[in-house]
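User: Could you check the structure of this?
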Amino acid sequence: MTIPGSGLTIADVRATSVTVPLQAPLRHSNGTHWGRFVRTIVEIETTDGLIGLGEMGGGGASAENAIIALKPYLVGHDPARTEALRFMLANPTASLYNNRTQLLAAVEFACLDILGQHAGLPVHALLGGAVREKVEFASYLFYRYPSADGSGEVRTHEQLAEHARALKAEHGFRVHKLKGGVFHPDYERESFRALAGELDGDRFRYDPNGVLSVEDAIRFANGVADLDNDYIEDPCYGLNGMRRVRENTRVPTATNTVVVNFEQLAANVLQPAVDVILLDTTFWGGIRPCVKAAGVCETFQLGVAVHSSGELGIQLATMLHLGAVVPNLSFAADAHYHHLRDDVIAGGKMPYDDGAIAVPDAPGLGVRLDREKVAEYAELYRELGPYPYDRDPGRPGWYPLLPNHDYADPAIGGRPAALETEPY
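Assistant: Sure, the predicted structure tokens are below.
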């Protein structure tokens, strides 16, 4: 049987890894972004010459080989048949071995980009139509090592508040998220309270990436419960641990780690542990699964926000199209985007306006590559190579246990020796 489709056929698949500098190295509970993001740009070309764009990360390493390995699956396929692609590339049982969900997402981005260009419509029009013209974002705040020029350190309560004030003045953020799990939770609770004290009238959220014990998570949440919190995100790891936190605090819980597929979403509906589901277009396998998950959340009155996994402009566009079509988007989205010094899309970085970014309205994803920038940052990746995202350059040999009890010392400042060869 011949299945009608778009009439388009995939002819080629290309992948290019790039390194784009950050303002300063970003510390997190498992390690550090070492002053730059490594992202793999995906291009899917049809026999008609349309080129769709995708993007994915890789924990500081290239994903080029994994993407190119999909070429035999994709060449000759109709890019409109994204549901068939889901089972071709990431069949649930096969994925126990090949772990292709994030690869599928990058392919889906590019296929939707192609379809939008072919139809002359933005991707949000293919997904049901926009209900908003812009998406609000939170000021994703990190503790940071100094950059190579000595600027940008965020370690003390005062440095954190100063950094947040500067971002608010520059971009207009009214919601502030602290990425924690770096220092002892008592220290980070003081930082969080100092932040809230400096930005009266704004809203706040805290995310230690699941490394706190359940008891420490409860203690932290209750210690900030009087503030204007959106939620506490992944304070500990696991649905049952999150359920215990939820039952012992009045601060809403959120996750992007333990509800990232439909089986976990169903488990959370049956036995609630998480109030707000953070939808990541990469982790869920594409924009379309996120839209479907948002529909489930709407049915069961769960909160929805858009999660960030370290995007350049292509993935940011997918986040904007998702945010545009989800009617129950009830929180500001996350983005690492303002930490970037540059981007690989034509026209440069998308601007914030009063804390929000406009949803692209050109056909497809609405972004195109700046080929000179791609070449520049591909060469930089070849020069610098990968870095270990899950290691802290200031703590050689360290890695966290779950729950963690071995935290960094906030009294130790400066730039680690392991970063001396890093240019950013």
